[in-house]
């Protein structure tokens, strides 16, 4: 079975290559130049340039679109680490605009209001790499089939509650483990049931992992949350609202970076978890109406 | 000979994969204890600003400097090459100085400028080397003792000085094991590298003084700042 990183099409190799560089790191949501600098100083591997963090998008309501390009550009000019930005699901023109702006990664994100209720962006058509959200293996492989160079489990963005991120990570990894136990003749029906491309299902069955790196997102608010995601098989974490909705963002950002790098060491976690101030307030999932659950977006 | 791979952040797993394919004894380095156990070290690709921050907060920078001062074999790719440089440009700061080179970060541009290219000129045995550049740095200046082992676009992309090597591309992200094999030979050669040069022409980690690679090194050095 093909190793996409080492022998895939050239375009895909450079895209997945950048995702490889981000492994073991923390990608932070930022809305201003000052926040971007705090994130870079704290050791973020990349920033996600946004107009509003997910918690505010949730609070304020209305249609959430691609960020003001002036914000994205000013952040690009102020930091030397990769800058990502989000486009709406299916909004390939927003994606083209972000590519033209020179962002390093486009997140086709459920956090924004979907532009297309049936189709995602054809990501093969772009030179810029894409990351997409998933809640399970079928969704992940559909996005990879469309050309995503990196996956992230969705969790529930802007909730400050890790439970959905854990659910999605566990679902994804256990579904992959199950595939490795199947006989070859069982894979086609499994592909049909998953709604996933057969070739990719065969690939996962053979290797037990996604063909692209898998990161975690959605609800990470503490160093221990980040370490938990890493322990459950995430290769990097996205922290959205958690950092800049907390009492001491610089300190929390640095703590999460250190916890992610040394996620297996409880002594480090003790050290970094002290005196962080108040974390962001979280949301109880049962209090969220289905229509308020961002994770449901994506097809 | 145990090869450590600095595993704080970045594509360290890819380096370990290459080393295991070559049958080397290797492992992750995340702590001082693991660093002390390493006879040679690879610093992987990743984000150099993150690596600096982690070296500092995990109190590994001074131990790493002390480890390097012993002259042990070290190899840095991309971000790793940046860390090993003497001076880093964009933003400016001092590196670990394991090689007499200055490096400019993100010198090719943003991710859409990342590319794959074959090496144009190489030390003998490395012809056709596939070089994957991801938001890659360039060697802006290379010292007189630094040998160029491969060049892309008229620029040095793989260099060596003594038992230290640096590459601006990612030999860990290909099926070609020649670069890692060269590092293993360099690392296991002890004080004298000459015997390895004689035993394996295909994977010689450096060129002889009359080779084009060294001539390239001189011209690139002269063209530096």
Please, could you describe this protein's structure?
Chain A has 14 helices and eight strands. In chain A, helix 8 crosses helix 10, helix 11 runs parallel beside helix 13 (249-261) and helix 13 (249-261) runs antiparallel to helix 14. Chain A has an eight-stranded parallel sheet with strand order 7-6-5-4-3-2-1-8. By secondary structure, chain A is of the alpha/beta class. The mean pLDDT of chain A is 95. Helices cover 44% and strands 12% of the residues of chain A. Chain B has 225 residues and is of the alpha/beta class. Chain B has a single domain (2-221), classed as Class I glutamine amidotransferase (GATase) domain (Rossmann fold, 3-Layer(aba) Sandwich), CATH 3.40.50.880. Helices cover 31% and strands 26% of the residues of chain B. Chain B has helices at residues 12-21, 32-37, 48-57, 61-69, 79-84, 178-188, 194-199, 212-223, and strands at 2-6, 25-29, 40-43, 74-77, 87-89, 93-94, 101-104, 115-118, 121-122, 130-133, 138-142, 147-152, 155-161, 164-167. In chain B, the strands form three sheets. Chain B has an eight-stranded mixed sheet with strand order 2-1-3-4-14-13-12-9, with helices on both faces. A four-stranded mixed sheet of chain B has the order 6-5-7-11. The radius of gyration of chain B is 16 Å and the shape is globular. In chain B, 55% of the residues are buried. Mean pLDDT of chain B is 87; it is low at 191-225. At the A-B interface, helix 1, helix 2, helix 3 and helix 13 of A face helix 1 and helix 3 of B.
């Amino acid at each position: 079975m093909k190793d996409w990183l080492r022998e895939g099409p050239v375009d895909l190799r450079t895209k997945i290559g950048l995702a490889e560089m981000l492994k073991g790191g923390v990608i932070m949501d930022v809305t201003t130049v000052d926040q971007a600098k705090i994130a870079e100083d704290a050791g973020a591997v990349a920033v996600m340039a946004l107009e509003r963090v997910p918690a505010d998008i949730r609070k304020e309501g209305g249609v959430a679109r691609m960020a003001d390009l002036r914000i994205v550009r000013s952040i690009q000019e102020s930091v030397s680490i990769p800058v990502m930005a989000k486009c709406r699901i299916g909004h390939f023109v927003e994606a083209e605009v972000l590519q033209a702006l020179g962002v390093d990664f486009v997140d086709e994100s459920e956090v924004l209001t979907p532009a297309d209720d049936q189709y995602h962006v054809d990501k093969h058509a772009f030179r810029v790499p894409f990351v997409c959200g998933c809640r399970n293996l079928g969704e992940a492989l559909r996005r990879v089939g469309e050309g995503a160079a990196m996956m992230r489990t969705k969790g529930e963005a802007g909730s400050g509650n890790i439970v959905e991120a854990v659910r999605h990570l566990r679902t994804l990894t256990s579904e992959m483990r199950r595939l490795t136990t199947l006989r070859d003749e069982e894979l086609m029906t499994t592909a049909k049931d998953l709604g996933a491309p057969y070739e990719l299902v065969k690939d996962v069955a053979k290797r037990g992992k996604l063909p692209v790196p898998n990161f975690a997102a959605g609800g990470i608010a503490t160093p221990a949350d980040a370490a938990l995601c890493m322990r459950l098989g995430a290769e990097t974490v996205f922290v959205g609202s958690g950092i800049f909705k907390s009492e001491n963002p610089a300190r929390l950002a640095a703590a999460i970076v250190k916890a992610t790098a040394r996620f297996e060491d409880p002594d480090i976690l003790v050290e970094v978890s002290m005196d962080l101030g108040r974390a962001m307030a979280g949301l109880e999932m049962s209090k969220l109406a289905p229509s308020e659950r961002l994770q449901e977006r994506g097809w | 000979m145990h090869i450590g791979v600095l595993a704080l952040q970045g594509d360290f797993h890819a380096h370990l994969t290459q080393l295991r394919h070559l049958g080397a004894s290797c492992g992750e380095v995340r702590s001082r204890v693991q660093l002390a156990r390493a006879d040679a070290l690879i610093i992987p690709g990743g984000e150099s600003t993150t690596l600096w921050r982690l070296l500092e907060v995990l109190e590994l920078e001074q131990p790493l400097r002390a480890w390097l001062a012993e002259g042990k074999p070290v190899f840095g790719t991309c971000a790793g090459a940046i860390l090993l440089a003497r001076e880093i440009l964009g933003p400016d700061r001092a590196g670990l100085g394991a090689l007499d080179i200055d490096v400019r970060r993100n010198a090719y541009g943003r991710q859409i400028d990342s590319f794959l290219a074959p090496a144009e000129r190489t030390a003998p045995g490395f012809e056709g080397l596939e070089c994957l550049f991801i938001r890659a740095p360039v060697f802006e200046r290379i010292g007189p003792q630094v040998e160029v082992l491969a060049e892309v676009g008229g620029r040095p992309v793989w260099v060596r000085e003594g038992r230290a090597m640096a590459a601006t591309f990612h030999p860990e992200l290909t099926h070609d094991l020649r670069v890692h094999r060269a590092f293993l030979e360099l690392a296991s050669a002890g004080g004298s590298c000459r015997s390895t040069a004689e035993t394996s022409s295909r994977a010689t980690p450096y060129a002889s003084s009359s080779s084009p690679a060294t001539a390239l090194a001189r011209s690139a050095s002269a063209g530096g700042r």
